[in-house]
Amino acid sequence: MSKLRLFFAMLLLALVAAAGAILGIVLGLLLARRETREEILARVRDLEEKLRGQIEEAKPKISQSVEKGRKAAISGLEKAEEKVDEYADALQASLQTEEPSQQATGQ
Questions:
Q1: Is residue 10 one of the residues assigned to a domain?
Q2: Is residue 59 part of a domain?
Q3: Is position 104 within any domain?
Q4: Average pLDDT for the chain
Q5: In this predicted structure, what is the pLDDT of residue 75?
Q6: What is the residue range of 70's domain?
Q7: Does residue 61 lie within any of the structural domains?
Q8: pLDDT tens sequence across 10-56
Q9: For residue 22, what are the CA distances in angstroms to 8, 34, 53, 80?
Q10: How far, rounded to the nearest angstrom, does the alpha carbon of residue 61 sit from its chain's CA centroid?
């Protein structure tokens, strides 16, 4: 019977050791995942801060570009308006000179 007890004791010890090893592996993986997750979150936070900084730096340039584009658009519209007015004046003058000549010829 002592050999049987020794066998069961050794079997129990082997099972406890295997369970401990499995538990250690599982805990190691869980902790590694937590650290990896925390590292990833830290990197994401760093990138977020960098992007915010870059956006804040770029805001004045973007505003200047928008303002410059707006001024150029207004200038272009004003020039177009001048050309349309010139064309309208020339067309009106042309029509006024044609009317007396048509009345004189009787048409």
A1: yes
A2: yes
A3: no
A4: 83
A5: 94
A6: 1-88
A7: yes
A8: 888 888 888 888 888 888 777 777 677 788 788 889 989 998 888 88
A9: 21, 18, 46, 81
A10: 17
DSSP of 59-90: HHHHHHHHHHHHHHHHHHHHHHHHHHHHHHHH
Cα separation, 92 vs 61, in Å, equals 46
How long, in residues, is the chain? Answer: 107
Q: Which amino acid is residue 82, in one-letter code?
A: E
At 72, list the tokens: 């150029």
State residue 26's pLDDT score: 81
For 96, the 3-state DSSP assignment is helix
Look at the chain and report how many structural domains it folds into. Answer: 1
Residue in this structure with the two tokens 């006024």, named with its chain if needed? 96
DSSP designation for 106: T
Structure tokens at 66: 């928008």
Condensed to tens digits (0 to 9), the pLDDT of residues 80-106 reads: 999 999 999 988 988 888 766 666 565
